[in-house]
Structures are given as structure tokens and as C-alpha cells.
Design brief:
Helix 3 packs across helix 4, helix 3 runs parallel beside helix 5 and helix 4 runs antiparallel to helix 5. The protein is of the alpha+beta class. The chain is elongated. The longest helix is centred in the last third of the chain and has 20 residues. Helices cover about 25% and strands about 15% of the residues. The chain contains 15 helices and 20 strands. Among the domains are: about 40 residues, no CATH class; about 100 residues, no CATH class; about 180 residues, Ribonuclease H-like superfamily/Ribonuclease H (Nucleotidyltransferase, domain 5), CATH 3.30.420.10. Strands 14, 15, 16, 17, 18 and 20 form a six-stranded mixed β-sheet that branches. A two-stranded antiparallel ribbon has the order 1-2. InterPro entries: REX1-like_exo, REXO1/3/4-like, Ribonucl_H, RNaseH-like_sf, RNaseH_sf. Belongs to the REXO1/REXO3 family. It comes from Papiliotrema laurentii (Cryptococcus laurentii). GO terms for molecular function: exonuclease activity; nucleic acid binding.
């Protein structure tokens, strides 16, 4: 390898070299020879000739053979050693002690100090070039086995510069794309310029919004473009689209974001605007007053109903028919805890099913056939139903006009509200326990628990969602929460609900502008059958409500919002 390349053709720096495997050239020194280079290792670490005993007792230096050389060195009769020229590469040299009849001293090793490497100083006369200076003592040799890479400080590439008035730069981590980096950077600057103009009214509150939008839009365009020509065309289209957007007034404005984000937000805003249940848009869905009695609503034309009331607030001691098991019982509070198993009932409804070729009515709660013993136990409870005269004796009815006439201060009446109530069983029958009112945008206006004035028989937690101890935190009674509701419900307010006549009766409120989703989405069999709210929501809106009634009960807020969304769907569908 070295011979054809011409490497190591210089003369050996040691004129008296005794190395058997030396790489340098040996022979008669040339007068024009350049000064020998500084050796890099001490003679103490070099291989030396070990002494061997010859047959005549003289010390003969042993010769180290090259690896793979099968020729053994022979010993001359004079005590010298004869080496094969192939194994050494030069003619034998006399001993270092006998060169030119002069004694040559061995190199002297001088320590440079404690902890410092030693240097070799040649003691031959007339030569100062063989001195080897010690390396700098401040440098430390690498520790064997410590191969940990050197940690280099690498500046992380960021797309958003410190000066937000400058356009962003593409992150260096950008993956390979069909578009050159320079073209993408130029397009990014163009998008940033358009976004900066668009976001000028809100940049003070969101200074990096233009940078983020430009980076996101450029990345989307690059990912969706197959080649440079399509990429440039898409960038031009995006820049024009951005320049034509209306200036945003907030970070949540539909004009903010990439083309895709802005399009989705704009469509959602237009959809919400088109389906917003304003009074003018939904008044055609109101139930006519003439049909109130047909659907079981309190008659707003019955003036006697709103006069007096409250003569018999509790039915304790009277005989009633249990609403669950249809058994006659006497309303009493005695030994109530011990009577928790006096009523056996099914809380589910019956539906026809064909079993073994026969049509049977099966309870949804337990799967038993109609007529079998109940699957639940509890106390007997009752309800006055839609008998307005009995309900009036418990708590008197009032119209919205009567309530608002006695109110002082500003009124925050809303055009359209949705309302839902939850009921419990007391000694006065089915009584109001919670009322929730939301506006046309679904924001909660009122959500209050109602403190009952009479003893509670059963919280009906499976459906009301009221648990023991919840009513202890209630601050308002029925009259107070009814007055609070009329802070948002005015004489011209339209109330939306599902089976709203039950909620109005529980609240003892009479109103003539109502929209009932049970009537708006009629049952296939017609009146008096009604569809469940959860079925309407599942069919029209595509999601589920009341799916955890067994452990959480109903949520009046969820039901109120669901009825409002069903009305929006109806308005939007009819407008198409």
C-alpha cells in the first residue's frame, strides 16, 4: 500500500535506528537531507532488542521477526546476528556503541514536572533538533470509555420571529415537499402580508395571530398541491380570499383562520343565523288558544282560575289513588321510613313485542309482561293530574301579566325562551322541585331549586335528578321562583317546551304563547299519543339525551336546550 503511494519514503530520523520493522528509509545520509521531524513517542515505549546468550557466552541481540515470516534468523560464528533482508528491509547496522569509533550516549529522559509528560532530549553532540517539547499541561487526555458526544448549542428554528412586524420563516423541520423552499418562503410572506391587513383591528390583542394563520395556511396549501404550478395558483387564490374577508372584531370571528377554518365558521354562523328562533320567525308554530283545552293546557280565558287559591296546601289525611300501582291509600307521614316497600310498581312503559308468535306488552324497565308484579318498591304517591281546580286549592294560578304588573325595576324580557321543570312527590301531590329557563342562544337565564312548603314523600330521583339533601340548599319557594321566571318571561315572550302543560301547571303559570315540541313533532298515531323528547332529538339532531336516567336522572337544563334545538331544526328545515 505504502510503496505505490510513495508514503514513508523519507529517511528515518534516527540515524542509528535498530527497529526491525521501521517504516522509514535507511541508508547513507544525504547531505541535503532536511531536519528530521519531531518524533511523537519516547524511546522508552519503542521495541528494543532483547539480549540472548550465544553458545560462546556472548550476549547476542534477538531479532524480532515480521508476522508471517517463516525464515528464522541464523547466528554467525562471530556472535553477530544475520537477518533476512526481506524481514528487515535494509542492511545490518553496527551497534550504537561502535558507530564511527565514538560512543553515542543514550537519550536522556528529563521530567518536566509533577503530572507532566516527559520529553526526550538527545545528548548527541552538535544536534539540537532531536528535542521534543512537552505538550501543554492544560490539555487533558480523553478518558477511556467516555464516548459521550459533545453537546453543541444548536439554535432552534422558529417560524415566528421576535419582531412580529416581520414575516415568519418556514420552520427548518419542514418535511420534503414538491415545492422548493424559496418559493414556499415567498408565498408565506405574501400570506402574512394579507393576514396582517385583515387582522389590523385585533392585532393589538393577538399580536402573533397573523403569523400563526399564515403558517397554517401555507402548510395546508403545500400539502394539498401536487406540483409548483398548482401551489402558486392556490396561494394566489388564498391571498385573494383573505383580502376579501370582512375585518374581524374578535379572535372568534368567522374571518379569522385558514380558508378551511373560515369557511366552516362562516357556514356555522349563517346556519345559526338562519335557524335563530326570533319571535317573528317562530310565532307561526305557537299553539292556538282554541286548542289549549284539546292538548290539556290551562285555559287562559278562564278568569276564575287566577282568582284566589291555596286553601288546601296539603292532602295529608285524605284518600288518594297511587300514581304508580293504582292502589287506594291514605296520605300520611307516619312511619314513612318503614313503608318504603308498600308500593310495588314498574317505572318503565309498556310496548308491544312479538314473542313466540304471540303479541305481548312488555315493560321497558324489566322486560316483564304486563300484569306481572312490579320490579320496584317505594311509598305510595299521588298526583292531581290536570285537574286545575284541585291544583288551584294547593297553590293558586297566576298569569304572566298579573305577575309583571307588580314588579318594579327594569325587566329583561326575552323574545323566545325554553323552559323545563322537574317534579317530586309531596303531600300536595306532584310538586315543583327545579326550574330551568334558557334564551334563544341556549344560555341559561334561570336554574333554581324550589323549596317545598309541605313534607316530601318521594324525591323521584330516577326522573327528577334530585337527590337527598339537594333541596336543603334551595332558597326560593314556588311563588318566589315564579316571580324570578317572569323577569325573563314577558307578556309577549314565546315559551318553548316539551309537554309544556305539565311545566306550566307545576309552576302555576298561565301563558298564551307557547310552542310544544310534542305537538310540533306529532306521534304517528295522533293525539293523545306523544313522542318522547329523546326520540325526537335522536331522529332530528342525531345525538342522545336522558341516557343515564337510572343513576343521574333527567337534567332540566339539558331538556330545555334540546327542545330549543328541535325548534331551530324545524325553522331551518321549513326555510329550505
Amino acid at each position: 500500500m505504502f510503496k505505490p503511494l510513495g508514503l514513508f519514503t523519507a529517511r528515518c530520523p534516527d540515524p542509528h535506528c535498530k527497529r526491525p520493522t521501521c517504516f522509514f528509509k535507511h541508508g547513507e545520509p544525504s547531505s541535503s537531507a532536511s531536519p528530521a521531524p519531531t518524533p511523537t513517542e519516547s524511546t522508552a515505549s519503542r521495541p528494543r532488542l532483547a539480549s540472548q546468550s550465544s553458545s560462546n557466552g556472548q550476549q547476542v541481540p534477538s531479532v524480532k521477526r515480521k508476522a508471517g515470516d517463516d525464515t528464522a534468523p541464523s547466528t554467525s560464528p562471530l556472535g553477530g546476528s544475520t537477518r533476512d533482508a526481506r524481514s528487515v528491509g535494509h542492511t545490518p547496522q553496527p551497534r550504537a556503541n561502535d558507530v564511527a569509533g565514538k560512543d553515542v550516549k543514550k537519550p536522556k529522559i528529563e521530567p518536566l514536572g509533577k503530572g507532566s509528560p516527559m520529553s526526550i532530549v538527545s545528548s548527541s553532540k552538535g544536534s539540537e533538533t532531536n528535542k521534543v517539547k512537552a505538550p501543554m499541561t492544560g490539555l487533558k487526555a480523553p478518558i477511556p470509555g467516555n464516548t459521550a458526544p459533545v453537546q453543541r448549542a444548536v439554535a432552534s428554528s422558529t417560524a415566528i420571529p421576535a419582531n412580529l412586524s416581520l414575516p415568519p420563516s418556514l420552520p427548518r423541520s419542514t418535511k420534503m415537499s414538491p415545492q422548493p423552499f424559496a418559493d414556499r418562503q415567498k408565498a408565506l410572506a405574501t400570506l402574512f402580508q394579507q393576514y396582517s391587513k385583515l387582522y389590523a383591528p385585533i392585532l393589538s390583542s393577538c399580536p402573533d395571530l397573523a403569523h400563526k394563520s399564515a403558517i397554517a395556511q401555507e402548510a395546508d396549501t403545500s400539502a394539498s398541491s401536487a406540483n409548483l404550478r398548482a401551489y402558486k395558483s392556490a396561494i394566489h387564490h388564498a391571498a385573494v380570499n383573505i383580502s376579501r374577508r370582512p375585518p374581524p372584531t374578535s379572535p372568534n370571528h368567522p374571518s379569522v383562520g385558514t380558508l378551511k377554518e373560515s369557511r366552516v365558521a362562516t357556514d356555522a354562523a349563517e346556519k345559526a343565523k338562519a335557524s335563530k328562533p326570533s319571535r317573528e320567525r317562530v310565532k307561526g308554530y305557537c299553539l292556538p288558544v282554541e286548542e289549549f283545552s284539546t292538548w290539556g293546557y290551562p285555559d287562559p280565558l278562564n278568569t276564575d282560575l287566577v282568582v284566589g287559591g291555596g286553601e288546601e296546601p296539603s292532602a295529608e289525611g285524605t284518600t288518594q289513588i297511587c300514581s304508580r300501582c293504582k292502589v287506594s291509600f291514605t296520605v300520611s307521614l307516619e312511619n314513612l321510613d318503614e313503608r318504603q316497600d308498600e308500593c310495588k310498581f314498574h317505572y318503565g312503559r309498556t310496548a308491544p313485542e312479538r314473542i313466540e308468535g304471540r303479541r305481548k306488552w312488555i315493560y321497558s324497565c324489566c322486560g316483564r309482561e304486563r300484569g306481572e308484579a312490579g320490579c320496584q318498591v317505594g311509598v305510595h304517591v299521588f298526583s292531581d293530574g290536570d285537574d286545575d281546580e284541585k291544583l288551584k286549592r294547593r297553590v293558586g294560578y297566576r298569569t304572566v301579566k298579573q305577575i309583571v304588573q307588580g314588579m318594579k325595576g327594569p325587566k329583561g324580557w326575552v323574545d323566545v325562551v325554553a323552559m323545563d321543570c322537574e317534579m317530586i312527590y309531596t303531600t300536595a301531590g306532584s310538586s315543583l322541585a327545579r326550574v330551568t329557563i334558557v334564551d334563544e342562544d341556549g344560555h341559561i337565564l334561570l336554574d333554581e331549586l324550589v323549596r317545598p312548603k309541605v313534607p316530601v314523600l318521594d324525591l323521584n330521583s330516577r326522573f327528577s335528578g334530585i337527590n337527598p339533601g339537594d333541596l336543603d340548599k334551595a332558597l326560593m319557594d314556588l311563588e318566589s321562583v315564579r316571580a324570578a321566571a317572569c323577569m325573563f318571561i314577558g307578556p309577549d315572550t314565546i315559551i318553548v317546551g316539551h309537554g309544556l302543560e305539565n311545566d306550566l301547571r307545576a309552576l302555576r303559570l298561565i301563558h298564551d304563547k307557547v310552542i310544544d315540541t310534542a305537538i310540533l313533532f306529532p306521534h304517528d298515531k295522533g293525539r293523545p299519543y306523544r313522542r318522547a323528547l329523546r326520540d325526537i332529538v335522536k331522529e332530528k339532531l342525531g345525538y342522545f339525551i336522558q341516557d343515564r336516567t337510572s343513576d343521574l336522572g333527567h337534567s332540566s337544563a339539558e331538556d330545555a336546550k334540546a327542545t330549543l334545538e328541535c325548534l331551530k331544526w324545524k325553522v331551518r328545515t321549513d326555510a329550505e
